[in-house]
Amino acid sequence: MVWLRYPPKPKPGDRVAVVSPSAGLPGLFPHVYELGLRRLREGFGLEPVEYPTTRVMGADPRDRARDLTAAFADPTVTAVLATVGGDDLITVTPHVDDAVLRANPKPYFGYSDNTNVLNHLHRLGVVAYHGGSVLVHLGRPGAPHPLTVDSLRAALFTSGWYELTPAAEYGDQPNDWRDPATLGYEPVMFPGTGWRWQGPSTVVQGRTWGGNLEILHWLMATDRIPSAAELAGAVLIIETSEELPSATEVFRMLRNMGERGLLAGFPAVLVGRAKAWEFDRPHTMEQRREFADAQRDAVTRALAAYHSDAVVVFDVDLGHTDPQLIVPYGGEVRVDAVDRRISVRY
């Protein structure tokens, strides 16, 4: 297993970097972004620090990497938060100054395309945090979800164990950022369904690795992930994006991980609740249920072929649905299939 260290934590009143290594969407949706910044200041007591590409769409990957490096290099900045995801961060990480990141470890928060940075920090031996987005979560219409806020606050400011909680309500149908008026009311939510457990009744404790499944597949193609030997004993976390990959795609991506020897080494797998609605695919509730069922079946089939004894927990709120729980990336997690509890060490 890769040796990893937790970076020092920020405290209220500190300056934190707000960066857009994936996409400069704050420039397109300033009303959402400014709301997120205000909540970061007022709700968390942190002072955001922007960089030249934070609000720039289509910025050169080298410029985005320069900003990311600068955020870690600045001694007055104590954490780094990604504004949002995107689809080309894989072109940015090769230009980051690894020596700077390794010498100045800081908590990095991001998900989706930010899996590139989370995995990159993991390879440098630094624990990061899967989750949190200035636009999506701090800029959530109506108000940030209480479960997200509690998890994010604990991940930012504390270092002990934190028990994750199944959401009493969830949503995957966001309001339209193009209409500023939609910030005035909360998105559609549905009754929570709890977690779904599968596999042996045992307790697994280990370090996490994974992230967005589509991005992990890209990282495998570019040979930028740790080896199967380095990841043996880790707890895999996976979630899928708003691109709504089909069950067939999900199975094939996991099958490829299995053929690489990865799946056999994960004693437990946490699977994020599947996002099943998007503006160009406004599924009915029945279609959403069918989509989510098919995705769970795809994960089950892949694990049956490569690691049938793994503990699997489905519908954990750690991905593209609302609310979102923060999970340390490379940090410790305890998956208790006896009492059906999940705890993480922030």
Could you give a short description of this structure?
With 346 residues, this protein is an alpha/beta fold. The chain is 31% helix and 22% strand.
3D structure, described in words:
With 346 residues, the protein is of the alpha/beta class. It has two domains: 15-160, Rossmann fold; 163-345, LD-carboxypeptidase A C-terminal domain-like (Glucose Oxidase, domain 1), CATH 3.50.30.60. It is built from ten helices and 16 strands. It has an eight-stranded mixed β-sheet with strand order 6-16-15-10-11-12-13-9. Strands 2-1-3-4-5-14 form a six-stranded mixed β-sheet, with helices on both faces. Strands 7-8 form a two-stranded antiparallel sheet. Pfam families: Peptidase_S66, Peptidase_S66C. InterPro entries: Carboxypeptidase_A_C_sf (IPR027461), Class_I_gatase-like (IPR029062), LdcA_N (IPR027478), Peptidase_S66_N (IPR040449), Peptidase_S66C (IPR040921), S66_fam (IPR003507). GO terms for molecular function: carboxypeptidase activity.
Distance between the termini: 19 Å
Q: What is the helical fraction, as a range of percent?
A: 25-40%
What does the main sheet amount to?
A: 8 strands, mixed
Overall residue-averaged pLDDT value: 98
- The name of the CATH architecture of the largest domain is 3-Layer(bba) Sandwich
Strand content: 15-25%
* Unreliable residue stretches: none
CATH superfamily of the largest domain: LD-carboxypeptidase A C-terminal domain-like
The tally of structural domains comes to 2
Classified by CATH, the class of the largest domain is Alpha Beta
Spatially, the strands of the biggest sheet line up as 6-16-15-10-11-12-13-9
Q: How many distinct beta strands?
A: 16
Please work out how many helical segments DSSP would assign: 10
The CATH topology of the largest domain is Glucose Oxidase, domain 1
Structural class by SSE content: alpha/beta
